[in-house]
Design a protein that fits this description.
GO terms for molecular function: ATP binding; ATP hydrolysis activity. By secondary structure, the protein is of the alpha/beta class. Helix content is 27%, strand content 29%. It has 2 domains: 153 residues, P-loop containing nucleotide triphosphate hydrolases (Rossmann fold, 3-Layer(aba) Sandwich), CATH 3.40.50.300; 56 residues, no CATH class. The longest helix is centred in the middle third of the chain and has 18 residues. The structure holds adenosine-5'-triphosphate.
């Protein structure tokens, strides 16, 4: 782990009902970066976030958040971490403003000022009962709860799926702007790969509990290229994966030739090739 890493995970293993859900997962997140955590349904993304946040006890592995071991996070460090769960359940009897006040009372950093931008974005009525909120409104509230005190480290588990197009569009502009200003660190899980492409620095692809690939966004199309199968062998690069669509991913970009230009190399193409 480097000092500039906001998160480090070393050899994380989690077993549930006798089945390994996470197998020896290791990675670190550099401070000030946005990383996407990708994987098919059941890959282990939520389990990984649960272990990182101390909601689940790992069977093996060491994890640190903002320089502290996850099992001994100080209250002040906890207050610097925001978490948007896949769904906000329970708490139905609270009004929106009541819940915001209640959750804030558990914080250990009274000096932090509330950033009004998230409540403005969410456009929720303060007196609305939580149980009367729609799925998308609950998602907005979860984002407000996680973001309003300007966290330095943010975990988001599928935060945008139920947002309407306008809210999603605005959120996808607000989040990266916030991260760059604050030098915050984000790990975001989502199935909407085209949305993530606009702002992620890096992608982690998890499948059946194993980290299949850890790739910088800028390496797609530079270090890694996608070629038609017949051109791949002659490319001089190392084959990473042969996709079911007949294309082959090569590590080692020798530059496009007019005769054999690279095929489009998006994270969606790579994800589909790896997890088929
Ligand atoms: N409490 C539990 N007991 C046993 N198995 C569990 C438990 N919770 C989750 N699992 C299993 O762990 C695996 C990973 O689940 P997880 O929720 O982490 O996946 P995910 O990648 O977040 O999926 P999705 O994209 O559908 O949200 C799944 O096969 C799931 O059935």
């Amino acid at each position: 782990m480097f000092m500039r890493d906001a998160v480090s995970i070393l050899n994380l293993t989690k077993i549930l009902d006798g089945r390994p859900i996470l197998n020896d997962v290791s990675f670190a997140l550099r401070t000030g970066t946005i990383t996407a955590l990708l994987g098919p349904n059941g890959a282990g993304k939520t389990t990984l976030l649960g272990c990182l946040l101390g909601l689940l006890a790992p069977d093996a592995g060491d994890m640190t958040l903002l320089g502290e071991p996850t099992e001994r996070l100080s209250p002040a460090t906890r207050s610097r971490i925001g978490f948007v769960p896949q769904s906000l359940t329970g708490l139905g009897w609270f009004h929106v403003q009541e819940l915001l006040t209640y959750v804030a009372s558990y914080r250990d950093r009274p000096e932090d000022r509330e950033d009004p931008v998230w409540m403005q974005w969410a456009a929720l009525a303060p007196q609305a009962r939580i149980r009367s909120l729609s799925g998308g409104e609950r998602q907005r509230l979860a984002i407000v709860l996680a973001m309003r005190f300007s966290p330095d480290l943010i975990f988001l588990d599928e935060p945008i799926a139920s947002l309407d197009p306008q809210a999603r569009y605005d959120f996808m502009r607000l989040l990266p702007g916030y991260v760059r200003r604050r030098n915050a660190t984000v790990l975001i899980s989502s199935h909407i790969l085209s949305d993530l492409e606009a702002f992620c620095d890096r992608y982690l692809i998890l499948d059946r509990g194993t980290l299949l690939m850890d790739v910088e966004a800028e390496a797609l199309g530079t270090r890694y290229r996608r070629l038609p199968a017949h051109a791949a062998a002659a490319s001089g690069g190392r084959e990473v994966i042969a996709a079911a669509d007949g294309s082959v991913w090569i590590d080692g970009h020798a530059g496009d030739t007019e005769a054999e230009p690279s095929l489009p190399a998006s994270i969606e193409h790579l994800f589909l090739a790896l997890t088929r």
